[in-house]
Design brief:
With 264 residues, the protein is of the alpha/beta class. Helices cover 45% and strands 14% of the residues. Helix 1 packs across helix 8 and helix 6 crosses helix 7. Bound molecules: nicotinamide-adenine-dinucleotide (NAD).
Length: 264
Amino acid sequence: MSDTTSADDGAEIPVVLITGGAGGMGVAAARRFVAGGWRVVVADHDQIRAEALADELGEVALAVHCDVTRPESCHAAVRATLAWAGRLDHTIAAAGLWTEGPIDDVDEFEFDRVMAVNVKGVFFTSKAAVPALRVTRGSLTLIASDAGLQANKGASVYCASKGAVVLLAKTLALDLAPDGVRVNAVCPGDVMTPMLRYQAEAYGGTDQDGYLAELLSKYPQGTNARFIEPAEVAELMWFLAQPTSAPITGAAMSIDFGLSSGIQ
Ligand SMILES: NC(=O)c1ccc[n+]([C@@H]2O[C@H](COP(=O)([O-])OP(=O)(O)OC[C@H]3O[C@@H](n4cnc5c(N)ncnc54)[C@H](O)[C@@H]3O)[C@@H](O)[C@H]2O)c1
């Protein structure tokens, strides 16, 4: 028996771990990486949807239950990845929650609920993944938002959480550069996923179409404005994971039709 692993048993096929992997952008990313020949770990606290996706993708995918608000759950997801695939090349921290409302209406429970997923979850997902990424000289993509680059009126907690993700990515990029590990933030505008539909239902009240139209009215494309497709964001995630993106680290990459470019 050789002490090196042959390509035949899949050991050389790269592996991506995606938290929030059963959500809108997570699913699109999983499909993109599988199409590119990678193996995918779909980590989500919605195990039913994670398993349904892994079943659909076949033997190149593994579903893992993960609650990113619990550091031990993040570490367990990485352990499960290594037990299954023997390596980890890229991690996408996409688990996230939306909230909005004026500061007077935000109580401690809501603040903690959102921060626990959007900030603590991204931090401990990163912490769990870093040792394995050092081995492969891999990379991390943290999903922030245009709301991490500019204020979104009425969404102070969400903006604070996404601003934290942007600077977490930049700081980790500096810290991990000597190890050859790259870290970037992706900052999408409004992407047509279950989160956007939840936003419209929860905060648009009886005028959900009006809520969505109001979002689109802020885009510089005017009457040609449209929502971003999850597959379009997945393409950027795929690009960032490639070795050809070697110089790209510490970036906060907008994919928002220019929404965050400045005041119109
Ligand atoms: N949809 C948008 O317009 C938009 C825009 C900018 C940024 N984002 C960000 O992109 C990321 C993905 O968003 P999406 O639109 O795909 O949302 P989504 O709601 O479709 O998916 C989020 C996923 O995260 C999972 N999740 C939530 N809490 C979790 C936890 N504690 N542990 C593990 N998994 C958990 C959910 O089960 C879900 O599958 C989020 O961080 C979001 O804030 C979304």
